[in-house]
Amino acid sequence: MNMLKKIWQILKTPTSAAVGFVIALGFVGGVVFWGGFNTTLELTNTEEFCIGCHEMGDNVYQEYKETIHYANRSGVRATCPDCHVPKDWTHKIIRKIAASKEVWGKMTGIIDTREKFQDHRKSMAMREWKRMKDNDSRECRNCHNFEYMDFSEQGSRSVKMHSTALASGEKTCIDCHKGIAHELPDMEGVEGWH
Amino acid sequence: MKKLITGLVLLGVVATAVAQKDDSSNDALLSNGGIESLRGKAQLSETRESDKMKRVLKDREVVERNYVHQPPVIPHQIRGYKVDLNSNKCLSCHGWKYAKEVGATKVSPTHFETRDGMTLSDISPRRYFCSQCHVPQVDAKPLVKNEFRAVESLSHK
Predict the structure, then answer these.
(1) Could you name the CATH architecture of B53-157?
(2) Percent of chain B whose pLDDT exceeds 90
């Protein structure tokens, strides 16, 4: 008992130099770890990383290259992570953890041929549509902010939809804008499609 | 007189020979003879500079038809609208299910018929590919002068 008390006493009264050292070490270690972690995380948030595997590079990336988010008059682009990875940290981490399933998919080669990709296209698309529907098309709205839409600059068909269904919150971007960056799967049974 | 005729014939022969000699070069064969066509004055052998791309017109009112049974032209942009085995973007508005809500023109019932005149319950496969007949309009002037006018009964008033 006395022994325990002694050890406790030593732990309770460290020299001030040691305290400073431990705190400094913790601080520096924290900075290094956090910096390293975030840098690596952001490295996986680039187009080059995404199309690094042929599943993405040969399928969805090729399709995306024909669309307005790849090439347009002003040269502003939305790359893979702009639409598929949330911007704010909490949601980004949740999405990144969920994406570990995709690493498993890559290892097992679930979509490693064009045919396999086509077979899975619908389930993959539905999953992404659901994600966007559930978060009210958050990633679209990172750039396309409803508050600043100028209806006088939009076509009459766009105004008709945006000023009613979108404004009231009844519909969200992805409800109508499906297949704007990639080929569509068989749309049989999908709402709003023939 | 005889001399004159002989001289003329000789001249003709020489001229033809010279002309033939000219024709033997590749350029002459490919020459358009100085005629200006829709392609411009360019020689057949040369690749001329392409025309500027025309811009597809943005949303407009329904465009009048010029004759009965003319497939109506598309008065809006259709960039990125896919029509294939998997999906048909046009029908998301022009299909009967959605047309009223959206305020779009309904697909004509003739599109439900097979070539034997049998009416199907949905768009007939032979009429499924919209842009085979319906096309958007660009801001281009007519290439040649045209005074064609639609018959009175078809013009919107």
Answers:
(1) Orthogonal Bundle (1.10)
(2) 40
Counted across chains A and B, CB pairs separated by less than 8 A come out at: 41
B148 φ, ψ to 5°? -60, 135
- Which three-class secondary structure state does DSSP give residue B74? strand
What are the extents of the domains in chain A? 51-176
Beta carbons within 10 angstroms of residue B112's beta carbon: 16
Q: B125 touching A, CB under 8 A? A: no
Query: Bridge partners of B99?
Result: none
Where do the structural domains in chain B lie, given as residue ranges?
1-50, 53-157
**Pair B43, B30: CB distance under 8 Å:** yes
Query: Do B92 and A156 make contact, defined as CB atoms within 8 angstroms?
Result: no
Q: Which residue, B56, B40, B38, B59, is CA-closest to B48?
A: B40
Q: What percent of chain B has pLDDT over 70?
A: 82
A184 with B86: Cβ contact below 8 A:
yes
